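Section 5.1 Outputs to date
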Amino acid sequence: MTLLHSFWLILPAVAGGAAHIAVIKLDLLPELARVPLDLGLRFRGRRVFGDNKTLRGLVVMPAATALFSLLQGAPGVADVDPLAWGLALGFGYIAGELPNSFIKRQLGVAPGEAASGALGGVFWVVDQLDGLAGALLAMRLLWIPPADVVASLVVLTLLIHPLMAALMYMLGLKRRIG
């Protein structure tokens, strides 16, 4: 039951991510896609996040996740407002990706590229789970998930995230699946 409940909890973020993929593929809101979140700033001579983290993602992911959460009705957590839930998941997901992007830029890994050597495997795992980590932190503002739910969310994320990456690859939005 925990796996199904956990899927219900993150379903708005999964749907929000799919909507974000559609927005990218259809090149909707192109003016927001041209504004990198780091505004082109550099740290130690390297970009902070790179060109792939944009204002479009910061707007679309939370908005789409909130919309899907409202359509879903109840997040499956007592006394949690669906709008607040969706916004927390969406903003948390985006925020969770930023430290990983920062570290990769500082190590010289280009946006959308894989790290080489042993770091490649480490970053693959981190790439799968960074958004979930951010979503879990944001989720705690509204509800503290028990350990079995967190474990289920990790398992689900390790299954769903690569599937979404494969979809992005098939749509020509990514150069690689991993």
